[in-house]
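Researcher: Let's run the pair from yesterday's discussion. Sequence first, then tokens, for each.
Model: Starting with the first of the pair.
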Amino acid sequence: MTKILPLLLLSLTLLTANAQKCPKPQPMKTVVNDALAFATQQSLAMAHSLADRPNRLPQTTDRFGRLITCNSGWWVSGFFPGVLWYLYENTPTDELRQQAHLISMRVADQQYTTDNHDVGFMIFCPFGNALRLTGDTTYATIIRNASNSLITRFRPATGCILSWDRAEWNKQWQYPVIIDNMMNLEMLMWAAGEFKNDQYAHVAITHANTTLQHHYRPDYSCYHVVSYDTLTGRPELKHTAQGYSHASAWARGQGWGLYGYTMMYRFTRDTTYLNHARHIAAFILNHPRLPSDKIPYWDFDAPNIPDTYRDASAGALICSALIELSGYVDAKTAKQYLSVAETQLRALAAPPYRNAPGNNGNFILKHSVGHMPNNTEVDVPLTYADYYFVEALVRYKKLKGW
């Protein structure tokens, strides 16, 4: 007995030490509320830093952590005002509403843009949320004008909205359509119902169906770019511009598709879209190279995994989509989706993904990848990572009824 007692004491000491090293995880309610409080602190600081820089909007940071801004014409311009509206929804203060409105109006001129397929991102992220939360019909007019602008880029011959003008990007593409464009359909689907305009819905549904047919491989991964022959309407090239290779699964692209088809099911209740979203989710969640924290590498097929960059923007996007998709499936599958989303929220809400207060231009998250092959915006904060993270937090909180 005298020999056993010291061993028992040693075992208890080791168990206590291990418990101290691995503290009990915080409840999800604490994680979510703390993350939203931090997001509010950072975002208001960012808004104040832009007060004397009219018509500028946050984009990313430079290698020294200094804020890089863009004008309203760059595709990411609507995300930061969208963040402010979500934060206002969570904590409806006068300051958040004022800042959300003022910064949203910096993007309002894009309602008339016809040379950019991302007018849906730029307008609906701020003004869709603004209208939903305030009922101010001024915002509705802006959305209607933007919807009219966006459908000018649709061509019946291809069945798609043109993404990039040919001379602007790669002259080998006749009619390039990128998977990101699925996200811009949300504005059209909402506007179709709000303004009783069947043309908006026709364009969005046709685009979604064409993309489903031609962008996806048998394993439900997708290409980034499909270029169509303008005469025959058939695909001529299938490429991946921002991923590792034409045959690879660029992480954020998989997220755009998951979110886009989940959203299309929300509006149409067409089970084709729901089943497709579930297949995309299965590809992502069952992928052998998805890390344990569920924040993907920038490309699922990057050759130097695990010694390469994660993409917090892809993680946040997938997380937000999974939370919504969990509401459309059976209980067992919903539990699986929410378990992954909770893992992602916990990861993004803590270091190393969470920014330090006041650092890196007051962004919320770090460690996103914009365009790896072009060596631009690599391992930096990105405004759309913040947007989908805050959206995911708000969605999860609503789901739980907190």
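Model: Moving on to the second of the pair.
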Amino acid sequence: MLQINLSLLCISLFFINEVSSYLEARGDGLYYGGQKVFLSGANYAWHNYGQDFGDGHYFSESQAFYERWLDEIASAGGNSVRFWLHVEGYVTPKFDANGYVISGDNQGTLKEELKTFLDAARQRNIFVVPVLWNGAYLTNQNAINLVWDESKLQSYIDNALKPLVSAVSNHPALAAWEIVNEPEGSIRVGVSNSNPCFDTTPISNSGAGWTGLSIPIENWLKFINRQIDAIRSVDPAMLATQGAWSERSQTNVCADCHNYFSDDCLIAAGGRPGGTIDFYQMHTYSWQSQYSPYSPLKVL
């Protein structure tokens, strides 16, 4: 498994060639068409929170903004972008009255909207990482229920995720799928467990769990594992990743750290050997103008 910080500052330029290909994680690097590349770009998350894609919103409201931002990234020498897709699930996917997912969106335009954005990114030689969900702030009970209820999660996988992955599979601008942004915001902290993967005492004083949703971390790990496995069942060569809020939850480098997103932890929770991440992606924030000594900006 490869450890990468998508916010690093160096730039390695490349060009998306005309032959369909995949970004690959090999050894300690990323490769495209046999050439080693370094992802450097921007996280612009959203224009209109949770409403940029689905039901025609991209075409009617967001496209101009997203393409302008792509131009700005390209002109600055960047080669990648990360954005949020479902976010909290208010527009996509479409839920029925019982909280089961029945389609990607109400009007059936989501696939074409995403493909249009990927085409625009390809024209500018930019890789795209769509983030499916947001665990850092989650208020939609239908989306919350996907983390608690396996049958509802499976309805999302079967009726929204797999069709969407199939629609854009093998797109040369698609770098990786990221399952959820910062699920640590919604975990239950201070829980002792004989399995270190589910023991959140190491990060109990780190600030995790800020949403107050108190979801067991094993639920989130299953949520991630099952979706990655589903993506691979449709598009086996596609990369998958996970956006951790800190090095504290994605490394074992300090006393109050634990790598909850290791292969072992994801498989222990979800039971799917194919549901593991290809490269680590961790976020880092300063506190009182200081970065942790274990921050990716301080540890190379």
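Researcher: Give me one sentence on the second I can quote.
Model: The CA atoms of residues 229 and 275 lie 4 Å apart.
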